[in-house]
Design goal:
By secondary structure, the chain is an alpha/beta fold. It has 3 domains: 49 residues; 151 residues, Aspartate Aminotransferase, domain 2, CATH 3.40.640; 117 residues, Alpha-Beta Complex (Aspartate Aminotransferase, domain 1). It contains 11 helices and 8 strands. The chain has a 4-stranded mixed β-sheet, with no helix packed on it. The longest helix is centred in the C-terminal third of the chain and has 31 residues.
Length: 351
């Protein structure tokens, strides 16, 4: 049975060590053979089990959405023309009485960043809102998740609220961690910086949390972070490898778009994600099956192109959004060509 290529969207796996994951699967299949389970059959069972788990996860997500429908009525969906980043005008109707505004840049799932102008407008809005509140009123704070800020590409520059407006220092809580930018997803060590009163309360809460990163990992990370030369050497190569994968896949989608297929992609800016568009709902397969919903499109691409990508509706977008997150966390460069060959073969019969 020829080995199938599948670009797995699983950034919490072993990234560049994915080869060991594949070896483990092969060794597991070898162990099963003496018990009467042929390799092809065992692999089929594993694939079907994974598919069932994915379907179950989708069912649970639908239940959660139904239970929280009242909370979602005030949602404002970010737009492709803004690289799926929120704007001040989109946020403004909801800030009265709010005490926390959560922002993420570079962003998961889009792989895009907030521009200087976008962040300036949001900072000015927060400062203006806080100036309007009385001394006894709670202020509006910004939690700024910059987990991927070391992974920006080309001319893209990372901005944060305090670098934009120094007054934001008293309103900004930074969130960062080692797991993503250092490809160390098993090392769950993170940190936060912000106003002393907020950090003290966070520390007090964490003192009563029973599960967190082991002390050995915390001390090791604290010793590692000041080693700037070592970090720069690692990131220089890491950024290069990630950017090469992102740009190669982006260019492949643009070539498919030029060829007339209903796909698109947003230029990669940061992180390990590429935003792609599979605008295939309403098309019919070669066996006459209508891809009626975006969920149908997702399943079709998984089954026919062997490509697993995460639809934006899994992150709160509308159910008919044709946009997807594609992660290169486990992507091998030598498999990209085969991936596009299979994707093109899946797209060609659609009408």
């Amino acid at each position: 049975m020829p080995r199938e290529t599948i670009l797995i969207d699983a950034d919490d796996t072993l990234w560049e060590n994915n080869v060991f994951f594949e070896q483990t699967i092969e060794e597991f299949l070898t162990l099963l053979e003496p018990f009467g389970y042929p390799r092809e059959y065992a692999r089929h069972i594993l694939n079907e089990t994974e598919r069932a788990l994915l379907e179950r996860a989708e069912f649970l997500k639908d239940e959660a959405e139904a239970a929280s429908s009242d909370l979602l009525k005030a949602a404002s969906e970010a737009k492709a023309e803004n690289n799926f980043m929120p704007t001040a005008n989109e946020i403004r109707p909801y800030i009265k009485g709010a005490t926390l505004l959560s922002l993420c840049s570079p962003q998961n799932p889009t792989g895009t960043t907030m521009s200087e102008d976008q962040l300036e407008e949001i900072c000015d809005m927060v400062i203006e809102e806080n100036a309007s509140r009385g001394d006894r009123e709670k202020k509006l704070f910004v939690m700024y998740d910059q987990m991927y800020w070391h992974l920006t590409y080309g001319t893209i520059k990372h901005y944060n609220p305090v670098s934009i407006r120094s007054e934001m220092r008293q309103y900004t809580i930074f969130i960062d961690a080692i797991s993503k930018v250092f490809a160390a997803t098993g090392v769950r060590v993170g940190w936060s910086m912000g106003p002393e009163t907020i950090i003290n309360k966070m520390r007090a809460i964490l003192g009563h949390v029973g599960a967190w990163a082991p002390m050995a990992e915390q001390k090791a990370v604290a010793k590692f972070l000041p080693q700037h030369d070592a970090i720069d050497r690692f990131l220089s190569n890491f950024r290069k490898e990630i950017e090469e994968r992102l740009r190669t896949i982006y260019e492949g989608f643009i070539e498919l778009k030029k060829a007339g297929f209903a796909v698109d992609a947003i230029t990669p800016q940061a992180a390990i994600y590429l935003t792609i568009k599979l605008d295939l709902a309403g098309k019919t397969t070669s066996d006459g099956r209508l891809l009626e919903t975006q969920s149908d499109v997702t399943a079709y691409i998984l089954n026919e192109a062997k490509l697993a990508v995460v639809p934006f509706y899994a992150f709160g977008a509308s159910r008919n959004s044709p946009w997807y997150r594609l992660s290169v966390g486990t992507c091998r460069k030598e498999e990209i060509g085969e991936m596009f060959l299979k994707l093109k073969m899946a797209l060609q019969p659609l009408y």
